[in-house]
Amino acid sequence: MKSWIEIKADSDFSLHNIPFGIGVIPGSGPRICTRIGDKVVDLSIMANNAYFDRSVFKDSDFVASELNNFISKGKQATGKVRSAIIECFLEKNYNESEAGFISDFMLYDASDIQMLLPVRIGDYTDFYSSIEHATNVGIMFRDPANALLPNWRHIPVGYHGRASSILVSGSSIYRPKGQVKPADASSPVFKPTGQLDFELETAFVIGKENRLGESIPISEAEDYIFGMVLFNDLSARDIQSWEYVPLGPFLSKNFASVISPWVVTMEALELFRCAGPVQQPEVLPYLKSDGDRNFDLNLDVLIKPGKGNEASVCQSNFKYMYWNMSQQLAHHTVNGCNMRVGDLCGSGTISGHAEGSYGSMLELTWKGTRPIVLPDGSDRKFLNDNDTVIMRGFGDKGGVRVGFGEATVTILPPKQ
Ligand code: CA
Questions:
Q1: Active site residue 353
Q2: Domain that holds residue 299
Q3: Which residues of the chain register pLDDT less than 50?
Q4: Are residues 177 and 315 in the same domain?
Q5: Within this chain, do residues 110 and 202 fall inside the same structural domain, yes or no?
Q6: Which of 147, 169, 289, 318 has the least CB density, counted as fewest CB within 10 Å?
Q7: What is the pTM of this model?
């Protein structure tokens, strides 16, 4: 699909993508927007000019500081908005006066638009669904011979995280402080974390609600998923290893997580659908999914030191996931837990087989024992102050590229 807007071949925002986000339009404020190439499109102006079905959306629905209401209209409705945008920007539909009007009133350079958190996240859950990641962590912290705990191949293991500290890409955070117990000490000390880490994840946004007490059948799970974002689940490993027994992570995870600003719809990702790994032993019937439920999405992590250039430290892929999103959602609701529009579910750290595909510094440096050397000559066991972590992700098939853009976060020295 060729557009009359210039889209570079390596752009994540092809005409096939049409993600949704919240951009602050200069002089107007937050609006529902999409992105095509290097341009942000103000959808509230498209609505005002009758590009969308007014029996479903009021023009004012696009004047919003979150996507929740928009998403709650349902995939059929939001899918029609996506289709209308594609039609409008297709090269074959080019009309000089219309294009002039659109360029003057609806298009902005992406670099001029501040992006906000796309959804109001009510609840956030994080899974632990990469077998390579869970195995690596098991080898490092427990028993190499029995790295996976007995439940792991039967349950998409997860925990409830905290939504209040989920930030949009471009944010900065202070290095968190907490209780740490040095290996050679008998009591803990209070200090800034010395083992600040990223976790390379994606997350899916809930687009449809189930009632409390009703489970989402696995065959219908994808109907409840609106789209996906990149997700950096920042973690303080030294705080985590002291606090996590017996209830799991707490302050080591809830100080900040970061998502990319554009929610890429499942319709746009359809092209990248692929088979997942064979699951052995067989899962219980409520977790049995048919067809291809994984997605072939390249994922990269780069570190940019305060004074230096960005350097790649990890290349992974979402297709490695052992448990797929349908299984995660079916499991999450099997007890009747209700999901709400805007809820966010993290995949868990996405590691591959190869060492360069591990999705955290913990694994990449093997608990700090094998530091990574960056091109500027400095080495890293974990993240340093003034480092910026950059995550990128995209699918590329048959010449069609659909991506997320970036999820970036900068680490500031501890707050005094
Ligand atoms: Ca995580």
A1: no
A2: 124-412
A3: none
A4: yes
A5: no
A6: 147
A7: 0.97
